[in-house]
Amino acid sequence: MSRKVFENSAVLIVDADKSLGVLFDYLKGYGFEVLVAHDGETVLTIAETAKPDIILLDVKIPDLDGFEVCRRLKASKTTEDIPVIFMTSLANTVDKVRGFALGAVDYVTKPIQAEEVFARVRTHLTIQRLQRNLEEKNVRLEREIAEREILIAELDAFAHTVAHDLKNPLGVTINYAQLLRGYYDKMSLEDLNQSLEMIVRNGQKMANIINELLLLASIRKEEVDLRPIDMARTVSEARSRLTFLIEEHQAELIIPDEWPVALGYGPWVEEIWANYVSNAIKYGGRPPRVELGATSRADGMIQFWVRDNGDGLSVEEQTRLFVPFSRLDQARAKGHGLGLSIVHRIVERLSGAVSVESGGRPGEGSIFSFLLQADNGAGTNHDLREANHHAAGGNL
Predict the structure, then answer these.
(1) Is 235 within the bounds of a domain?
(2) Residue 26's domain is classified under what CATH number?
(3) d(CA 270, CA 211)
């Protein structure tokens, strides 16, 4: 066996008569860090601070006997798992039983034989490591089981929500398709165009739901690096996705010219803006007036927000927003549930937070926000675009 096999292990020898120099050298030869104490109080202090892997404890020591020291070691959360092997000249069964009852794992009888002590130490350290490995595996297994239970609950809730949200646009699409199939030759050009428009519109709604499902899968699996985001470009992309909705509702969008630079992942942050702005349009005033902005905070975070001019949300409705997927069936507050649950998951993955402020009175609207880490080395998105422009040789 390698003489350094226990290089990362520490053993505390409690030697009342200071006669165990041979054992000290023998264990040092196998790579142990060997600590020594000669009285009970010192044992307790060293055990609490150094946390040795195993203790060789003389029964007869000054101030506290070995049995009392063992009792105190096992009564402390810090030291209760350290194996204790008694070293004693006492060979009667009563003393051995007493030691085991106090939590000792073994006995060696004086005079000490270094080879025997080493064999017992090695055995109990091996048992200890196997127990720790088993405990770690059990903890991992329990965590995996809990995570799977959450995933199953989320999948069930998400499936019901997707089915609910797909049912209406799918039904409308089928109805208009059947209308065209049966009467297209008798319909005016205006009616034909209207029917086709409804098919396209509801097809887009279904495509959006499917895209959200795919996005959810990517959020769960994909590992991303947080990088400076060109927020102006990200907001512009989100706005382009909502062109039809903006035109349909004649919505006014107020967007700042400059944005502070935050760390994140562009495609996910674009999804946040798309959800927030679409909800602000759908549930805002008539016509909707939607304002976007950002506020830098002293804690190194940036709060990005969307303010609408709708009726606002009651306190009860606010509590049903941003819910976990397992509670989506409860989150039908004005239809926000699915999208905002995805937003919540995205922002959590980006180490941020979400919130909503609403007075619940007509016209006051609501403010939906999310926090991202500020890029402390950057200025505004104008600076970021300039840097990208120069890095690309001015060909953006």
Answers:
(1) yes
(2) 3.40.50.2300
(3) 13
In whole angstroms, what is the distance from residue 64 CA to residue 39 CA? 7
234 and 93 share one domain: no
Q: What is the predicted pLDDT for the residue at 390?
A: 41
Strand-pairing partners, residue 58, are 87
Residue found under tokens 């000290």: 24
Write out pLDDT tens, residues 88-117.
Answer: 876 667 778 888 999 999 999 888 889 999
Q: What is the mean pLDDT of residues 163-189?
A: 89
- Read off the pLDDT of residues 4-63 as tens digits, 9 standing for 90 and up: 567 778 999 998 777 778 888 899 888 899 999 989 999 999 999 999 999 999 888 888
- What letter does residue 374 receive in the DSSP assignment? B
Beta-bridge partners for 303: 295, 371
Taking only the tens place, the pLDDT of each residue in 69-86 is 999 999 999 999 999 999
**What is the phi/psi pair of residue 229, to 5°?**
-105, 135
Angle at 368 between CA 284 and CA 366, to 5 degrees: 40
Contact 226, 258 (CB under 8 A): no
Residue type, 1: M
Q: How far apart are CA 125 and CA 154, in angstroms?
A: 43
Contacts of 122 (CB under 8 A, 6+ apart): 6
Instruction: Identify the H or E element spanning 107.
Output: strand 106-109
pLDDT tier at 386, thresholds 50, 70, 90: low
Distance CA(383)–CA(96), nearest Å, equals: 76
**CATH code for the domain of 228:** 3.30.565.10
Q: Return d(Cα 381, Cα 383) in angstroms, integer.
A: 5
C-alpha to C-alpha distance for 313 and 317, rounded to whole angstroms: 6
**Which DSSP string do the residues of 322-369 spell out, in sequence order?**
S--GGGGGG--GGG-HHHHHHHHHHHHHTT-EEEEEE--STTT-EEEE
The verdict on residue 286 lying in a domain is yes
Which residue range is the domain that position 23 belongs to?
10-112
Q: Of 133, 128, 127, 125, which is closest to residue 6 (Cα–Cα)?
A: 125
> What contacts 265, CB < 8 A, 6 or more positions away?
224, 225, 226, 227, 229, 350
DSSP H or E segment with residue 137: helix 114-183
Amino acid type, 351: S
Torsion of CA 216, 219, 222, 228, to 10 degrees: 140
Q: Which two tokens stand for residue 205?
A: 């709604």
